[in-house]
Structure formats: structure tokens, C-alpha cells
Design brief:
This is Electron transfer flavoprotein alpha subunit apoprotein. Pfam families: ETF, ETF_alpha. GO terms for molecular function: electron transfer activity; flavin adenine dinucleotide binding. Heterodimer of an alpha and a beta subunit. The electron transfer flavoprotein serves as a specific electron acceptor for other dehydrogenases. It transfers the electrons to the main respiratory chain via ETF-ubiquinone oxidoreductase (ETF dehydrogenase). With 336 residues, the protein is an alpha/beta fold. The chain folds into 2 domains: 11-190, Rossmann fold, CATH 3.40.50.620; 221-335, 3-Layer(aba) Sandwich (Rossmann fold), CATH 3.40.50. The protein is built from 9 helices and 15 strands. The protein has helices spanning 24-36, 49-57, 70-75, 85-99, 110-123, 234-243, 251-255, 284-290, 319-335; strands spanning 11-16, 38-43, 62-67, 103-107, 126-131, 133-136, 142-148, 153-158, 164-168, 185-190, 221-225, 246-249, 274-278, 295-300, 313-316. Strands 5-9-4-1-2-3-10 form a 7-stranded parallel sheet, with helices on both faces. The chain has a 5-stranded parallel sheet with strand order 12-11-13-14-15. Strands 6-7-8 form a 3-stranded antiparallel sheet. A hairpin with a 5-residue loop joins strand 6 and strand 7. Helix 4 packs across helix 5. Bound molecules: flavin-adenine dinucleotide. Flavin-adenine dinucleotide (FAD) binds next to helix 7, helix 8, strand 14 and helix 9. Flavin-adenine dinucleotide is lined by residues 226-228, 250-253, 262, 264-267, 279-281, 283, 285-286, 289, 299-302, 305, 318-320.
Amino acid sequence: MSTNDPTRNRTALVLVDPATEVRSSVLELLTIARGLGRVEAVTLEAPTVEVLAQLGAYGVETVHQAEVPTDALAAAGGDGARHLPSVVGATLAAAVRRTDADVVLAPATFGAKEAAALAAHVLGAGLVIDAAAVGEDEAGRVVAGKRVFAGAWDTRCVVTADVAVLTVRANAVVPEPAAAPVATEVDPLPVALPGTAGVVVTSREVKERAPSRPTLEEAAVVVAGGRGTGGDFGPVEKFADAVGAAVGASRDAVFEGWFDRYIGQTGVTIAPRLYVGAGISGAPHHRGGMQASQVIVAVNADPEAPIFEICDFAVVGDLTDVLPQAAAAIRAHRDA
Ligand SMILES: Cc1cc2nc3c(=O)[nH]c(=O)nc-3n(C[C@H](O)[C@H](O)[C@H](O)COP(=O)(O)OP(=O)(O)OC[C@H]3O[C@@H](n4cnc5c(N)ncnc54)[C@H](O)[C@@H]3O)c2cc1C
């Protein structure tokens, strides 16, 4: 579904929030947007110099910075309220009206999904949540590919409305800068909130990310541990660090208190390029959150483990033997 016709007269708006760093998932959106037409960005706060340079490298000529009335923000709990989905949704709608954009692309975070839905409602736009691929059909309509029913079906959604609003999963494409960088201008975008923001922010804490590990939702490689670790996530974490992966777990491992975040239908949904599950049986609830991964590797001591039914590579063995050996082999290969 590649769409790289530079003559296309379409504008694609990309949500960049927060504007203090452009995450890899947003660079992917900018790459997809360039394939759809002219790219513009929208932010909720002043972009830093580094962010402007990155946006320019990805071909963004204009970034629209929301100007939300301070009294509306104060009523909603202060400056942190500018990231509320109701405010972001109103900003996206205002940006579409200002730019006459045809497509809005946002990351597939919970907040961005809610904002995308609100903006699509206000604009009467077509909405696709959790797209894994974006392109267009023969008639020039925006088409999104997405996996549904716990990854069991691949669907193709054609947006028939004038405006398409899509949230796109991380790892949909490999981020690629534009052939030539451009200078990015900041354009103030007045945003009127319809009534109140709906909720009041009472406290907001931005958590520092461990600099050495990617986030679970956006990582290209995820290594997950289950009850088969017996509570020792050391081999899982060491292997993850050898391949630059994020670490996750099954729900049972988290409920045992062995790790803090779990993957699955009631946990984090991921679609990395590579998922490695160690000591995880592959229960349906877990599969629902990882089955959309592009390549699945399972390490399990039981040759009958259900996860082997859905994996691309099966390693039957004790994870405390397999993972350290695999990590050592990867390091040796890298150092060679
Ligand atoms: C409403 C509801 C929602 C749920 N949502 C989720 C969810 O979102 N995510 C989720 O993960 N679960 C969820 N669950 C729980 C889910 O049903 C399973 O119980 C859970 O995923 C099992 O975790 P596990 O694979 O780590 O453990 P187990 O099923 O006990 O599997 C452990 C595996 O480790 C293997 N093993 C043992 N020792 C070793 C070793 N040394 N080396 C290698 N392999 C070894 C075993 O052969 C086994 O296959 C939910 C359950 C309910 C009821």
C-alpha cells in the first residue's frame, strides 16, 4: 500500500505530543504521512529546537502549536491539562479546519486514541484505531490495514469520509527522513474548547524512562517472561539488553510480583517486529496482546506448550540455559 506520488495534493497532519522529544513512533507517522502527501504537524506546547530540527529532517514545513485560552486550562487543572484528550481532540479538529487537512495521524496511545475519536466526531471524519499499515486504494481513498480478533484476522478499512483520522501502531514502518531537510515554521493555532475540558487534572507526573530500554508499547523487539522464570527475570532482562529490547511479562508473572507490566488482552497490546516469549504458555489472554507481532519466538520447556502453535521459531528448552547462550552468541556476533 505504498503511496509515494509527490504530485498528490493531499495534506496529512501528524500529532506530536509531547513536543519535548519526537519518539520513534511519531517519526514513523511522519514517514507514512510523506507517502500520503504534504506533511504538517500539530503540537500542544512549544517545540524545542531539537524537535524542530527533527521535524525538518522528516519534511515538516509547518508545525501548528495550540494556543488554548489560559482560563480554560486553569479551570481544567492548570498547564498539564493541555494534554487532556478533550483538549488534544479540539486541537486536532482546529488544525484540520485551519489546514484543510485530509488525513490526521496519531500514535496508538490511550490518550491519542481518545483524542482522535473526539476529533473525528467533531469533524464527521472516518476513524480507524490501531492501524498497522496506511496507504490508499485505486480511487485515492485512504486505506488502513489492521489486525483484529487478537490478531486472528487481517482487515482492510477504506475511509469513505472526506477526512480520515487514524491512530497507527508503533512498528508499522521503519522511520525514514526526507530526501532533503526543510526549515520548520511554528504557526500559532488558536483553539477554543467547547465548554469545559470535561475533567479536571488534579496531579500530573511525567515518569522518566529508563534510558537504556525502549518502552514496551513502541519497542521493535520485546522479550517477555512468564511463570516459567520461577521469579528470576535475570535471564530475560539480560537477553533483552543484549538485543536492545523492551521487557514485558505474562499477567501471572506480574501478579506473582516478579515484574511490573504485562502483555495481553487486559494488559499492554504490542505489535513489535520481534517478540520473544520465555516461560510463557501462550494462554489466549496473553496471545490477544502479542499475536500481531511480526516474528514470534517462544522458549518453553514443554514441547506441547500452546505458544508453539502460533510461533515462527520454537525453542524447546529451559530458559535459564537457552537465554544466556543466545545472549552470548548475539554479543559474540556483534563484537566480531
Ligand atoms: C480475565 C482474565 C484476563 C487475563 N488477561 C491476561 C493478559 O492480559 N495477559 C496475560 O499474560 N495473561 C492474562 N490472563 C492470565 C492467562 O489466562 C494465563 O493464566 C497467563 O497468561 C499464564 O501465564 P504464564 O504463561 O506465565 O504461566 P503458565 O500458564 O503457568 O505457563 C508457564 C510456562 O512456562 C513453562 N516453563 C516452566 N519452566 C520453564 C523453564 N525453566 N524454561 C522454559 N519454560 C518453562 C511451562 O512449560 C509453561 O508453559 C488473564 C486471565 C483472566 C481470567
